[in-house]
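Sequence, structure tokens quoted for completeness.
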Amino acid sequence: MTILVTTPNGSVGRYVTEALRDRDDVRFLVRSAAGAEALGAVRGEVVRGDAADPDTVRRAVAGVRRLYLAHPFAADQAAVETGLALAALDAGAHRVVKLGARPFTRPGMVPDPVTGAHDTITARLRDAGVPELTVLRPDRFLQNFLPSAAALAAGTLADPGGADAARGHVDTRDIAEVAVAELLADRPVGGDLDVSGPEALAPGDLAERFAAALGREVRFVDVPLDAAWRAGLAGRGVPAWHVEGLYGLYANYRREGVAGLGDGVQRVLGRVPRSAAEFAADLLAPAVGVPRTP
């Protein structure tokens, strides 16, 4: 059995890699020498190249039987992920564990480019008849707040997702553990697995969890989805299509309000998900120099 891991340095992929780096039957696809260096020492094979390049894909999928399929949000995401999966199927793969996104369930929601890309890819995989398909559908990643650790330590959680948008914020370590379990299982659970944290938290609630771990006040600031927000992203070099994708996603968070919780962690791992408080104590506090409480 050979397992191919794509995007092994991503928010979820880095933890998938950590769980599988000592196995000799795992292959990791990285884009560059810098990606290989970030990967660190692994026992299995490392393939370098662009996931959109047919020659790279052929080398990556040769002999693969199971595939962890992930790709950053990009203009060509649907084409790249679908191409990888179909090439893997042609090479003999029979199991795909795809990293997707939690769907919006409120009536009247407008499709957004981020979740829409995942819907397109999943539909193509089903049409292709993947024998064993698991689609991980996580809510908002807690790890996405780590780049704002300095601002949080200074007392501000600024977020454009809406003050009343209570989400099942999920620790990406849990997503990775579910992915690895599905990759390695003799009989995977399969199907759509909604993955979330144990409670739906509005941004103000999340700020309170972070404040407790950091030992200081953290105040939520609602960032409006306006021209200034767009200009700020553009000024940091974010392409216009990416800004529009994020706008659609955050607008849907605001429209949906309170999201339901997923049971994927319990179904696959038999335990409750990690909480926002655990994430903050384990990862956020150390990121700003606050020692973890024993």
Summary: Strands lie at 3-6, 26-30, 45-48, 66-69, 95-99, 132-138, 156-159, 191-195, 219-222.
